[in-house]
Amino acid sequence: MVKRTYTRAQVKELLSALERQCREAMALAKTAEADASKHSFGAYRAFRDKVGEFQALVILIEGRLRSVAEGRVEDLRSEFERLDALMLSVLVRASMRFFFVLSANPILPMGAREIFVSELRSLHDAHEKLRRPNYADKIVADLERDLDTASLILEEIIDKAPGMLSFTGNRDGS
Questions:
Q1: DSSP secondary structure letter of residue 133
Q2: Domain carrying residue 95
Q3: d(CA 33, CA 84)
């Protein structure tokens, strides 16, 4: 089987799309934070959907970077890692702010369980990515602290609703 190769131009085009996704996610993050105080997950779901699109594009680009026909890819890889680290920062900060607003609410909106299960996984994945040596110089200084803060706030919210994360299959926690 012949392995498909890609040109630098093709990868650069995907990196441009990745940058657009990042900008769109930043705008959605601001809206999500404002809507959290209205007991709504709609804007946060839109933000998370955009992050999901970004992550799918990340997977595609990682494969293309390994299959560039021309020799030099260090600059493309560096730009890719910069954008990925930027999105990681946006994700962690948006999550932290959204969770902080929610932590003040005594009653959680419908759909909270699904959101928090996904968020626990996402925060774990973000923490793992932070440990990669190639991301060390691209991560903003306070990001790890913000990630820990987001995790603590999420744990506080979960503690408010003890049956929320029942994994027995019953929604009522029994």
A1: G
A2: 8-158
A3: 21
- What DSSP state is assigned to residue 53? H
88 assigned to some structural domain: yes
Is residue 81 situated within a structural domain? yes
Element (H, E) at 118: helix 112-130
| Contact present, 81 and 134 (Cβ < 8 Å) | yes
CA distance 6 to 66: 9
Q: Is 111 left (phi over 0), alpha (psi -120 to 50) or beta?
A: left
Q: How many domains does the chain have?
A: 1
- Taking only the tens place, the pLDDT of each residue in 5-64 is 999 999 999 999 999 999 999 999 989 888 877 767 788 889 999 999 999 999 999 999
Residue 174 lies in a domain: no
168 falls within a domain: no
Judging by beta carbons within 10 Å of its beta carbon (0-12, 13-18, 19+), is residue 84 exposed, middle or buried? buried
Per-residue pLDDT tens over the stretch 103-162: 777 666 666 666 776 777 787 788 788 778 887 777 766 877 887 887 787 777 766 655
Give the tens place of pLDDT for each residue, 77-102.
Answer: 999 999 998 898 898 888 888 878 77
Which of 78, 74, 92 shows the shortest CA–CA distance to 128?
92
